[in-house]
Amino acid sequence: MTDDQINELHIIQRCFSAVSNLLSPETDLHAVDRDDLSLLVSYLSNRLEKTMEGR
């Protein structure tokens, strides 16, 4: 695997973690990792942009 592929896998893993935390949150939603959630939104936005550009 290339370094880019490994980095992509790491990002996707953190995105899944954010979704998992949202689906099964603690009683306090502040327990959701904001960095992972921010990464998820950023990643999806980036992928949407690339898809719309045809890349």
Set down the secondary structure blueprint.
Layout: H1 3-23, H2 34-52
Helix pairs in contact: 1-2
Keywords:
55 residues; mainly alpha; 2 helices; 0% strand
Q: Could you describe the 3D structure shown?
A:
- By secondary structure, the chain is an all-alpha fold.
- The protein contains two helices and no strands.
- Helix 1 packs across helix 2.
- The protein is globular, with a radius of gyration of 13 Å.
- The protein starts with a helix and ends with a helix.
What is the first-to-last residue Cα distance? 21 Å
Q: Which residues sit in consecutive blocks of at least 5 with pLDDT less than 50?
A: none
Q: Round the mean pLDDT to the nearest integer and report it.
A: 86
The DSSP helix count reads 2
Overall, the morphology is globular
The biggest sheet, with number of strands, parallel, antiparallel or mixed sense and barrel status, is: none
Please compute the radius of gyration using only Cα atoms: 13 Å
Number of strands: 0
Helix content: over 70%
Q: Which structural class matches the secondary elements?
A: mainly alpha
